[in-house]
Design brief:
Nucleotidyltransferase, domain 5, 3 domains, two-stranded antiparallel sheet, 12% strand
Length: 342
């Protein structure tokens, strides 16, 4: 590229162009051009000093070993680091994990789909469990072509806990009404306590479902027609369900098999899955108000590591504070001003 640029500039100069003018138009300094003609090599010398916080070879090897182990191979650095902190270990920050994995070509996409952006109108906010639920219905493939099972699933957006589910052979407002009735009894929901958000399907807005919500004192909330992004928590939950490593590669042969698999998924999701939206604690920990103890313990691990090796930390430790508010379809400017009604 340098040789081509020199030739073009020399041709222009031989045709009568002034050297300073042609260099300026080309974006190349006159001195740079003269240096290129002497030598095409880059003779600039950088600093020979290694940064004080540079990872040691054994630390890099440990990061690779942990990230490729059976326990963490399907986890991101954002999950691996807090999981290690829960065991009283700190090796490096998430950014260091990402950098090491990238340098060793281990940053391949492990999911089955690309992330999807969401628009969020009609703002709501939850400050405690059992204030706002989100629910939806998704299809589960069967062994019969064109026939599906229907998974009804409700989640608490504050804790991300799956509070109830059922698998049925048809989509019906009677099934959804029966399920929300069971959930309200199990979670001890009082009248005027809960808002239930969903899309505009028949099972969500049917007369039986709306009558049940009115009897229970549950306030319905609906997405805009044909806009799935207005119900992001349920959409995200179904994406996790269908793209997790344990999702069956073959269709379900019976409704019993489908229900059993979903039951195992719900147990994993509520009790083992470290959810990024609630600072990498499990939904059950958040729902039962046990996340504060876990996050404080992580904070102590970070603070101790910072005291032992201060030159590794250029600023404050990671924020391990509890998530106090969870927004549903918030508007960014309203969230910043904290003006969203509960």
């Amino acid at each position: 590229m340098k040789t081509d640029s020199i030739k073009l500039i020399d041709n222009a100069i031989s045709s009568g162009a002034r050297k300073a003018v042609i260099c300026k138009d080309s974006g190349i300094g006159v001195k740079t051009l003269d240096r290129w003609k002497i030598s095409s090599k880059d003779n600039r010398k950088g600093s020979n000093r290694s940064p004080a916080n540079k990872l040691k070879p054994d630390e890099i090897a440990e990061i690779i070993k942990i990230s490729t182990s059976e326990t963490y191979v399907d986890k991101t650095p954002n999950e691996i680091v807090p999981m290690l902190a829960d065991k009283g270990r700190y090796i490096a920050s998430e950014s260091s994990f990402y950098r090491v994995l990238k340098e060793n070509k281990l940053m391949t996409h492990r999911g089955k789909s690309k992330p999807k952006a969401h628009k969020k109108p009609e703002p709501l906010v939850a400050t405690a469990p059992n204030q706002i639920y989100s629910w939806d219905i998704t299809y589960l493939k069967t062994s019969v072509l064109g026939v599906f099972y229907y998974l009804y699933m409700f989640m608490d957006i504050f804790s991300r806990k799956i509070v109830g589910f059922k698998v049925h052979e048809t989509e019906s407002m009677d099934y959804s009404a029966s399920l929300i009735n069971e959930i309200c009894k199990k979670e001890n929901i009082n009248k005027d306590q809960l808002t239930l958000h969903s899309d505009n399907g028949g099972a969500m807005k049917g007369a039986t479902m709306l009558a049940t919500l009115q009897r229970l004192g549950v306030m319905p909330s609906f997405s805009r027609p044909r806009v799935s992004d207005d119900n992001p928590y349920s959409e995200s939950l179904f994406k996790t369900l269908k793209y997790c490593p344990q999702y069956p590669s073959k269709p379900f042969v019976s409704i019993e098999e489908a229900s059993a698999w979903v039951n195992n998924f719900v147990y994993w999701y509520n009790n083992e899955h470290l959810h990024s939206g609630i600072n990498f604690v499990t939904p059950n920990d958040k729902h039962n108000n046990e996340d504060g103890y876990i996050l404080n313990r992580r904070k102590m691990v970070y603070q101790e590591s910072r005291l032992k090796n201060r030159n590794r930390w250029s600023g404050k430790i990671r924020n391990w504070n509890k998530i106090e508010k969870v927004y549903l379809n918030y508007l960014q400017k309203e969230k910043k001003a904290d003006k969203i009604p509960a």
